[in-house]
Amino acid sequence: MRPQIVLFGDSITEQSYRSGGWGAALADTYSRKADIVNRGFGGYNTRWALFLLHHLFPLGSATPPVAVTVFFGANDAALLGRTSERQHVPVDEYKENLRRMVQHLKECCSTMFIVLITSPPVDEEGRKEYARALYGEKAMKLPERTNEIAGLYAEKCVELARELDLPSINLWSKMQETDGWQKKFLRDGLHLTEDGNAVVYQEVFRVFSEAWLPASKMPYDFPHHSEIDPENPGKAFQQQCLGV
Amino acid sequence: MRPQIVLFGDSITEQSYRSGGWGAALADTYSRKADIVNRGFGGYNTRWALFLLHHLFPLGSATPPVAVTVFFGANDAALLGRTSERQHVPVDEYKENLRRMVQHLKECCSTMFIVLITSPPVDEEGRKEYARALYGEKAMKLPERTNEIAGLYAEKCVELARELDLPSINLWSKMQETDGWQKKFLRDGLHLTEDGNAVVYQEVFRVFSEAWLPASKMPYDFPHHSEIDPENPGKAFQQQCLGV
């Protein structure tokens, strides 16, 4: 009965139920109104995520999600010739993969509300520190992602959203508006701190509320407890729960 | 494809996706393995929750939840003749209502793993402070819940679990083992602080892991990214995603 909002993405989505996470915050906001379904796949790029499309969003489903956030790019933007090159996807293919995702989602349900989210900026110094902490002296000296290249992917994502007339969140730009974004929003140069999660939550909440359906306008799935008459509780449930 | 674990309860379940909440922490633990579905209904007692049973857990469902936490009592234990009396349910009825819930869940799926959770202890001083903050001088001088009465409900809950051979979590006892539980675990004498949420999470995690299925033993729903061959990504998806 409760509509579903799916968060589709990589590790930044998968980890969004950690303490202070943006997924959990959305779930709390839509509490009793919609289910937030986490479909984050750590390490996945858009090329690999395409294999999941028909499984996560089967055509002909009687209850497709009402909204989906599509949040990829952090792994696609890994550089060739560096430690994470296996995840690399060329930027034009990244854009076309996103397009295929949107086409598929629209085929599932033409009224589905789709939001494209760019990957966050990259703090190269933070990535290096992280690599040194993991691998010590063996850590590669050259970063496996750069902020500049991540910016090109973000641009393509926003460009596609414009072409398809979809809302988008340019996290790469948004976060860099704040001084000290490197440590304030990113805990290892790439993944989000609680403050970083708060930015994603606020942006998704804003886009949902402005362009779609604010949680406050959605009905509770069953009567609010204050509407239940303790002398005759069945009455409040009658409409929604006939036959019980 | 991903199995569902349903959290069925009152506001302490409904609010479990707030920052540091036990529901979000479980969702993070079972990430990529099971979906944690929040079916918390703030203000509900067991009598009202019975009206929801067939809707939340329809008989004959092809995909019933694999596990359910049943976490009621905080509202049932509201005292007659006090400000929350409309929520009051006599303690023997509370026990029978819980029994009907379990019977229904077992009818849905005889192998469903069901855990009964008692309500937390009540800090009467905390409740009074909360009432004064809300209603000022108009606040009733007598608490609408007492810890002693909450303890009787907890006893009945644990008693029923024993009769039905189900695991239970006696939160009422467990929390009182810690000095200063009143402020450490409860933010308004009844609802949980982050520390209180951590206790619920740890207990549910322990019961799930000991008596049922630890997250670590459950398979990922799709290949881990490290298992994907970048030269031939289709191979890793072949078994699970035939036909894509």
Automatic annotation (TrEMBL), chains A, B:
CDD domains referenced in this protein's UniProt entry, alphabetically: Isoamyl_acetate_hydrolase_like (cd01838)
Gene Ontology MF: a single term: hydrolase activity, acting on ester bonds
Keyword Hydrolase found: yes
InterPro entries: GDSL, Iah1-like, SGNH_hydro_sf
Pfam family, one: Lipase_GDSL
Signal peptide coordinates: none
Keyword Repeat: no
Family recorded in the similarity comment: Belongs to the 'GDSL' lipolytic enzyme family.
PANTHER family with a match to the protein in the record: GDSL-LIKE LIPASE_ACYLHYDROLASE FAMILY PROTEIN, EXPRESSED (PTHR14209:SF36), ISOAMYL ACETATE-HYDROLYZING ESTERASE 1 (PTHR14209)
Protein name, entry field: SGNH hydrolase-type esterase domain-containing protein
Species this chain originates from: Coffea canephora (Robusta coffee)
